[in-house]
Design brief:
By secondary structure, the chain is of the alpha/beta class. Helices cover 24% and strands 33% of the residues. It has a five-stranded mixed β-sheet with strand order 8-1-2-10-9, with no helix packed on it. A five-stranded mixed β-sheet has the order 3-6-7-5-4. α7 links the parallel β14 and β15. The radius of gyration is 21 Å and the shape is globular.
């Protein structure tokens, strides 16, 4: 049961676990502030006894048994190429995460608190260059916090892909696909994820319009309405939206869309790496007609075809 402090659908807010990674450079210690969506966190534990795995990348510290589930554990500092201070592991914790239906642990130097932040205050990390010493591809967003500090949101999904624990399932017999006519819109801040979904929809015959977040998605809807007016539903057949996006998340986008009578009959499907049932329930509450976990081609094609058929006049 939700309490009064729980996240509201359409609030455009997220909750982050604030954790810290320390760096030693020329004898100085620097504190990095990072965050991960609470929806991806199962639990936070002390660093358990780990079994080393020979032949794996250095940033994999080992595996351990968590209630009969074997969990690989990644040292985030090593993955990021950060020189750790000596004895830092005395206060370290393991954040157990679940996304893309994969369980994985991440060693961090401290886990501070839960923060509630508006997506409107999160900016894409496009300004981070390799010259900063930090790989911008490992950051999905940044936001300012108190005392002029900056919190970075890490792209932990890329770790899972680097380890080969997750690969998008994009293979399906094209000739077995049902083909449609019309437009589909794809919202996703990840260019890789957007391309996977776009390719899948184009195989189904759709003309695809892309947007990088909910804000741009609403702007694209306005442009389409200028072209098609009240006939928009006859042309825009479906919207596929990620959940986590800077500026405006997928749930807030859906709430805005469903409150607008020009757009509220257009079906929307959520397509996210977040694989907990709470987010699935929130997606349905936000007006989504399906909630898919990235990415299984067969399930994607089946659900899109089902929903588009249901809206045919």
């Amino acid at each position: 049961m939700m309490d009064d402090n729980s996240l509201k659908i359409g609030s455009n807010e997220m909750e982050l676990v604030d954790f810290r990674i320390f760096k030693e450079d020329n004898g100085e210690i620097y504190e990095g502030i990072y965050g991960i969506n609470v929806s991806k966190v199962r639990e936070i534990i002390k660093v358990p006894s780990l079994t080393e795995l020979p032949g794996t990348p250095e940033f994999i510290e080992g595996i351990f048994d968590l209630r009969e589930v074997v969990i690989p554990v990644v040292n985030l500092a090593k993955w990021m190429g950060i020189n750790e201070p000596a004895n830092i592991h005395q206060s370290s914790r393991v954040i157990i995460t679940e996304f893309n239906n994969v369980l994985i642990g991440f060693i961090v130097h401290d886990a501070k608190r839960i923060r509630r932040i508006s997506w409107s205050n999160i900016e894409p990390a496009t300004f981070i260059s390799s010259a900063s010493g930090l790989d911008g591809n490992k950051i999905t967003g940044v936001t300012k916090i108190e005392d002029d500090n900056v919190l970075l949101i890490l792209d932990l999904e890329s770790v899972v892909q680097e380890l080969g624990l997750y690969e998008p399932d994009t293979e399906i017999q094209v000739k077995s696909l049902e083909h449609f006519k019309g437009i589909a819109m794809v919202l996703d801040d990840s260019s890789t994820a957007r391309k996977i979904v776009t390719d899948a929809l184009e195989k189904m015959g759709f003309d695809v319009i892309g947007a990088v977040d909910g804000e741009e998605g609403l702007n694209k809807l306005e442009e389409l309405y200028k072209n098609y007016g009240d006939k928009l539903e006859d042309h825009l057949k479906i919207i596929i939206s990620d959940v986590e996006m800077p500026k405006m998340d997928g749930f807030h986008f859906a709430a805005q869309m469903k409150d607008d009578q020009r757009f509220n009959q257009i079906p929307i499907v959520f397509n996210s790496s977040i694989s907990d049932h709470f987010s699935e329930d929130r997606g349905i509450e936000a007006g989504g007609e399906a909630y898919l976990v990235k990415f299984k081609a067969g399930e994607f094609y089946e659900q899109v075809a089902r929903i588009v058929h249901a809206h045919m006049k």
